[in-house]
Amino acid sequence: QFHELFPNFQKNKFFISGESYAGHYIPALGHTIHKYNPSASVKINLAAMVIGNGFSDAKTQSDFGNYLYYLGLIDDAGKKEYKQLYDDLLVALEDENWSEASNIQSAFIGYLYHKYINHEVSPYNYLPGEPEEPQNWIQFLNSN
């Protein structure tokens, strides 16, 4: 509909981008554009799809107890608890109990991560200390 309202933009390159759960929607949208573009009355000049930190497959992407264990960030008890929660997640996914699967997924980060790993460690960067880069970016973005 955007290109119908603003046809002057139709020839511009079109990029689909997002992060996290957009990892589920971006490929679907890109596939739909690619599939229907040849017969569409209004063409979309799809140039690229960009997914940052995409979450597209809960079954595969939630099994990170071993990862944290072998980094030394959780102990045997933490590894067992992660394994149990992961097994519960697999059952919820198999049963298509999306509400329960969502609650379990939230527990991975919200409960277990903070129970076994202190708040000083980011799940995206386990190196100690706060990196200076965010401050540099803030300064750059606020500059003329």
UniProtKB/TrEMBL annotation:
The keyword Lipid metabolism does not apply. GO terms for molecular function: serine-type carboxypeptidase activity. Pfam families: Peptidase_S10. It comes from the Eukaryota. InterPro entries: AB_hydrolase_fold, Peptidase_S10, Ser_caboxypep_ser_AS. GO terms for biological process: proteolysis. Keywords: Carboxypeptidase, Glycoprotein, Hydrolase, Protease, Signal. The keyword Phosphoprotein does not apply. Its EC number is 3.4.16.-. Belongs to the peptidase S10 family. This is Carboxypeptidase.
